[in-house]
Amino acid sequence: xxxRSPDAAPWWRSAVVYQIYPRSFQDTTGDGVGxxxxxxxxxxxxxxxxxxxxxxxxxxxxPMKDFGYDVADYCAVDPLFGTLADFDALVAAAHAxxxxxxxxxxxxxxxxxxxWFRESRSSxxxxxxDWYVWADPAPGGGPPNNWLSEFGxxxxxxxxxxxxxxxxxxxxxxxxxxxRNPDVQAAMLDVMRFWFDRGVDxxxxxxxxxxxxxxxxxxxxxxxAWRPGMQEARALHRAYTAHQPEVFDAARAxxxxxxxYAPERLLIGEAYGTLPEVxxxxxxxxxxxxxxxxxxxxxxxxxxxxxxxxxxxxxEAALPAGAWPNWVMGNHDRPRIAGRIGPAQAxxxxxxxxxxxxxxxxxxxxxxxxxxVPIPPEMAHDPMxxxxxxxxFGRDPVRTPIPWEDxxxxxxxxxxxxxxxxxxxxxxxxxxxxxxxxxxYRRLTALRRAEPALSLGSYRTxxxxxxxxxxxxxxxERRLVVALNFADAERPLAHEGPVLLSTHAGDRVAGRxxxxxxxxxxx
Length: 523
Ligand code: NOJ
Hints:
alpha/beta; TIM Barrel; binds 1-deoxynojirimycin; 15 helices; 18 strands; 3 domains; Oligo-1,6-glucosidase, domain 2; globular; eight-stranded parallel beta sheet
C-alpha cells in the first residue's frame, strides 16, 4: 500500500474508491466479457483518474445467474475472468502503482451450485443441512411465511426430495447461508483470510443487511408506502429480514478478521436502510463494525440544493463520534447519475462527490458522464429485468461496457460485447478534451489529493438558498469554499476568493455563478 493520508489518518479516510464491474471494464480474450487481465491493462486509466483503491465486483466461479453474486467457490477465480495467477498479477501491478485492491465478499448467500448447498440439499441428515436456512411448509402447505425475494416472488423454494423449503432473499439459485451456524461463520471468515493472505486490502461486503434474518420466521408486515408499479419486494416492510441484531455481531466478527492484519484491512458494508440502521454498522462505542458502511443517500436524493444540504447535515449529525463518512452516487444496481440529472448537473454532482467530507466511491463510467444505455428486450441479461420485463427495474443499462476508443467495439473487445456499448464519448476522446467530464474528474481528484482540507477537513454549510449550496471545508488554517449552482440559470454568489477549480471553462464572473456551475475557491 503506498497511498498515505495526511495527518497519519488511516489511508482509506483520504482515499477515493473506484468500483470496477469486471464484466464491462476491458476484455482481453475476445469473448465479449471483461476480465482480470483487462483490468491490469487499463490500470493507467485508473491511475490517471487519480483514485486510490479499486473495488472489483465478484470474480469467483459462478453460474452467473446473478452475474457473480451467486458464488460457487469463494476461493478461486471464474475462468471467464482469468486465473488466480492473473489475480495475483493484478494485485502486484495495482500495488506497484499505489492502488489498494478491494474484493466483493458475498457472505449472505451462495450459488445453488456451491458444493455446500449440494450437500445441504442432499438429505435432512446431511452434516451441512444446517449451513442453509431450511424450513417446513406452512401448516396448511406452501411457503413457511410471506417473505418476498428481492427479485420477485416468494423468498422460499421447495425441495421436493426432502420436503422442506430453502430461503433465498434473492434468486432461488442464491440459497441463504445460515450465519447462525458457527461452522458457516468460521468458513466464511476463513474466506476473508484466504484473500487477505493474497494481499487484498479489504472487502465490500454484499447485502449485509440480509445476512441473518429472524430465526422466528415472523411474517413481514405490509409496507403502506408501496404502490402498484413499484417492485413487488417493496410491498412488505423488511422488519424480520433486514438489519436484525445478529447482523451487527457478524459485522464485528468480520472486522476482527480485518484487524488480524497489519495494517488493518478495510471493510465497506453494503446495507440499504434508514440513517440509524446504516449508522449501526459502524459498531458500538469502539467503532468495531465496518469502517465504512455505504452511504447511498445521493443515489436517492432529490436533486435540489435544499434537499442535498439537509441530507448532508442530517448524515453528518447522525454519524457516531469518530466515525468517518462516505458518499456514493451510483453502482451496478442503480440508474446512472448523469442520466437522472442530466449532463450539466452531472458535473455539479461530480464536484459535490469529490468535495464532501468522507471517502467517495466512483462507479466506473461516472468519470465519463455515462448514462444508462437502452437494452433491446432480446439482449436482457439481468434477472431483475427478466422477472418483470419492461417495468424499468433491469440493471443491464447501468452495466454496459466502458467505451475506450472510437469504433464499433470501442476498444472494449474484439468480439460481440455482452451488452451494447455507448452512454458517453470514449475515454480516448475525453482524455484529449479539457472540457470533458473525464478531465473534470481528474482535476477534482488532483485537487482533493493536494488539499487536506478537501480530503480530511471539517464540513460546514455556509449558505443554501435560491438553488445554490455553499459550504466550507477547513483543515488547520486552510479554508476552502465550495459553491454549487443547481439551477440552469445564473445565480448571485456572495463569496469571493481565488478560484481553484470550476466546472466551467473560461473567465469567472465575480459575484455570479454561471448556470450549472460549481466552483472551489480559497476561503
Ligand atoms: C447486492 C449486489 O450489489 C447486487 O448486484 C446483487 O444482485 C445482490 N446484492 C445480491 O447479491
